[in-house]
Design a protein that fits this description.
The protein has helices at about 5-15, 20-40, 40-45, 45-50, 100-115, 135-150, 170-185, 205-220, 240-250, 275-285, 290-295, 325-335, 350-360, 365-370, 375-385, 395-415, 425-440; strands at about 55-65, 70-80, 90-95, 125-130, 160-165, 230-235, 255-260, 265, 300-305, 315, 340, 365. By secondary structure, the protein is α/β, with parallel strands linked by helices. The chain binds NADPH dihydro-nicotinamide-adenine-dinucleotide phosphate.
Length: about 450
């Protein structure tokens, strides 16, 4: 049996320079290789070696004309990682930092996450180094149309079903869907996150944030606690951060921070629902910066270039991007009494910081378990599209909540240690792995 180091040497040699991908694979290898010792049939079939190689990677040119009629060129990607248990499924990210390594890490995580949802969803991820920030609606539309003009031939409701991620919200999904429909002359559920009046599911916009809170709620229950009166820090101020905050407020928690790539805002008495409405309008309509809150909301202070982890809290919700909690941040959080982390973002915590949380035995929910509510509700959107119906808000929310309860149970089943501490990283990795691995075993060497 290979050691983690030997396994990783091979991964690094085959995927040079893709640091985030190495990081994501290493975390999984540390959970799965010991599991394979006890389950050698998976090792013999080289399941993990196959899972770290995408089934297919598409890279394409995306040319478009900006408002000055100048030609702009971006890179487009789709990583189709694993289709053992269903069509490829995972978001599109538009952000200048996007490269193949980042998308491979996200697609790899997605395979495990989608397996955990219990729905028939394979794993994929895609996007572009296009930056929607500062672009006019017309420019965003032209870019999306050009992007889809290549992507459309590779996706489909039974093949690959993209959704949103950083920089891809309802506006972008609308433009992408419009172009797909025009090219294929078909109205199908090829994308999720659609508008509710044209095939979208109620609760999909809320699902990642709500689902993350539901997962942490299950973790808190294991210690006989709830959210009432808990001080929470949230990073980011996009889709995930906004709906995490909304649900936390509903459950009686005090949310004291939000952030963007410029810095964070802090309100000691906690953001109110009215404050959150201001953030919705600021971020989703005017597309402004979070620092404006300090000018407009009473009791709110802005800290330029800083992250919210220096603020004392009971529970932290990193909901912006990968690698936003470093070792020193984790130390500060633990020292200040933080005892639970719910990762709304994908891989927001560097491995050394994860070790600090686990050593302190705090409740730590990794992204693939905590933020799986988004893709779960995308799965529910696909089901509604297939049977051409629309479920009520309460029905979707209840299904989402039940999925999060089930994911929590699966993590506990595979992650509970002898002293009773639940290692949610091991739990999520092993539970996610087993379903995909069994399907791959059944389907032969493909
Ligand atoms: P949005 O684009 O709506 O918001 C992203 C937020 O994170 C913004 O506030 C943005 O600030 C901030 N951010 C992005 N990059 C950086 C950076 N490098 N440094 C600091 N802040 C940054 O994206 P989402 O809310 O959809 O996604 C947030 C995270 O959640 C991502 O990790 C995503 O993969 C994950 N996720 C999202 C799901 C979904 O359904 N949307 C599902 C599961 C996971 P700024 O505007 O300044 O860039």
């Amino acid at each position: 049996m290979k050691s983690v180091q030997e396994f990783m040497e091979d991964v690094i040699r085959k995927n040079p320079g893709e640091l985030e991908f190495h990081q994501a694979v290493q975390e999984v290898a540390e959970s799965i290789l010991p599991f394979l010792e006890k389950n050698p049939r998976y090792a013999k079939a080289k399941i993990l070696e196959r899972m770290v190689m995408p089934e297919r990677v598409l890279i394409f040119r995306v040319p478009w004309l900006d408002d000055n009629q100048e030609v702009q060129i971006n890179s487009g990607y789709r990583v189709e990682m694993n289709s053992a248990i269903g069509p490829y499924k995972g978001g599109l990210r538009f952000h200048p930092s996007v490269n193949l390594g980042i998308l491979k890490f996200l697609a790899f995580e997605q395979v495990f996450k989608n397996s955990l949802t219990t729905l028939p969803l394979g794993g994929g991820k895609g996007g572009s180094d296009f930056d929607p920030k500062g672009k006019s609606d017309t420019e965003v539309m032209k870019f999306c149309q050009s992007f889809m003009t290549e992507l459309f031939r590779h996706i489909g409701e039974n093949t690959d079903v993209p959704a949103g991620d950083i920089g891809v919200g309802s506006r972008e999904i609308g433009f992408l869907f419009g172009q797909y429909k025009r090219l294929k002359n078909e109205f199908t559920g090829v994308l999720t996150g659609k508008g509710v009046n044209w095939g979208g599911s109620l609760i999909r916009p809320e699902a990642t944030g709500y689902g993350c809170v539901y997962f942490v709620q299950e973790m808190l229950k294991t210690r006989g606690e709830g959210f009432e009166g808990k001080v929470c820090t949230v990073s980011g101020s996009g889709n995930v951060a906004q709906y995490t905050t909304e649900k936390l407020l509903e459950l009686g928690a005090t949310v004291v921070t939000l952030s963007d790539s410029g810095g964070y805002i802090y309100k000691e008495t906690g953001l109110t629902s009215e404050d959150l409405q201001f953030v919705f309008e600021l971020k989703n309509v005017r597309r402004g910066r979070i620092k404006e809150c300090a000018e407009k909301l009473e009791g709110c202070t802005y800290f330029e270039g800083k992250k919210p982890w220096e603020v004392p809290c009971d529970i932290a919700f990193p909901s912006a991007t990968q690698n936003e909690i470093y070792e020193n941040d984790a130390q500060t959080l633990v020292k200040n009494g933080c005892y639970a982390i719910g990762e709304g973002a994908n891989m927001p915590t560097v491995p050394e910081a994860v070790k600090i949380f686990q050593k302190a035995k705090i409740l730590y929910a990794p992204g693939k378990a905590a933020n799986a509510g988004g893709v779960s509700t995308s799965g529910l959107e696909m089901s509604q599209n297939s049977i051409r119906t629309a479920w009520a808000r309460e029905e979707v929310d209840e299904k989402l909540r039940q999925i999060k309860v089930n994911i929590h149970e699966a993590c506990v089943a595979y992650g509970k240690q002898e002293d009773g501490y639940v290692d949610y990283v091991n739990g999520a990795n092993i539970a996610g792995f087993v379903k995909v691995a069994d399907a791959m075993m059944d389907q032969g060497v493909v």
